[in-house]
Design goal:
With 208 residues, this protein is an alpha+beta fold. The chain has five helices and 13 strands. It has two domains: 118 residues, Homing Intron 3 (I-Ppo) Encoded Endonuclease, Chain A; 64 residues, Arc Repressor Mutant, subunit A, CATH 1.10.10. Helices cover 26% and strands 26% of the residues. The protein is extended, with a radius of gyration of 23 Å. It starts with 11 loop residues before the first strand and ends in a 9-residue tail after the last helix. The C terminus is likely disordered.
């Protein structure tokens, strides 16, 4: 989900047909304050913004209560159902910028399956190619050789390492991937690489 800035106006509306759930124009979903009663007691539950998760297709989803059961729903469809009229009963929702995590209402539109595919084929490739690249450094933990790549995808391709594992190393979720350690080239990377080499017994800094 895109980071919300102070100058963005967020409007909340009730999700059609589902009481107690609201969706915002910026792609957030929340529950409302509610009283839950049983034979033993009545309990107050405070509403909250629901945590979103990326599914295996790259879309953000949430679990919401519907008819007493939890259901997983994609956020872009919830936003479209809440804020965008679908007079032609179109079946799919298109992300105009081809970013499946950008669920701002202005980035969404109802479309046919064929239109969705055509849009993605036409603009998705261009969007990916024009997306800003994040260069990375890789340290071979055996030879201590340091290499710089223009992106995680380039490092993945040339080193034979899954890109998701490169990302995990950079985020500190794992120590290495196939014998390599990675860090983003963010302006401080050279110092970070030098420190890492020192920690593992390397001397000097050779970058190819």
């Amino acid at each position: 989900m895109k980071k919300i800035t102070n100058n963005e106006k967020e409007i909340w509306k009730t999700l059609p047909g589902v009481a107690g759930i609201e969706v915002s124009t910026l792609g957030r979903v929340r529950t409302l304050d509610r009283l839950e009663s049983s034979e033993e007691r009545t309990q107050f539950t405070k509403g909250r913004v629901l945590k979103q998760h990326k599914n295996n297709r790259g879309y953000l989803s949430v679990r919401i209560p519907i008819d007493g059961k939890r259901a997983t729903k994609t956020v872009h469809r919830l936003v479209a159902q809440t804020f965008i009229k679908n007079t032609d009963n179109l079946p799919e929702v298109n992300h105009k910028d081809c970013d499946r995590t950008n669920n701002n209402v202005d980035n969404l539109e109802w479309c046919t399956h064929q239109e969705n595919i055509a849009y993605r084929d036409k603009l998705g490739h261009t969007a990916r190619n024009n997306a800003p690249k994040s260069p990375v450094y890789a340290i071979d933990l055996v030879t201590l050789e340091v290499s710089r790549y223009q992106s995680q995808s380039e490092a993945s391709r040339k080193l034979g390492v899954f890109q998701q594992n490169i990302s995990k190393v950079i985020k500190g979720k794992q120590n290495h991937a196939r014998g390599y350690w990675f860090v983003n080239d963010d302006g401080h990377a050279v110092d970070v690489v030098k420190s890492k080499l020192h920690d593992i017994g390397g001397v000097g800094l050779k970058i190819k």
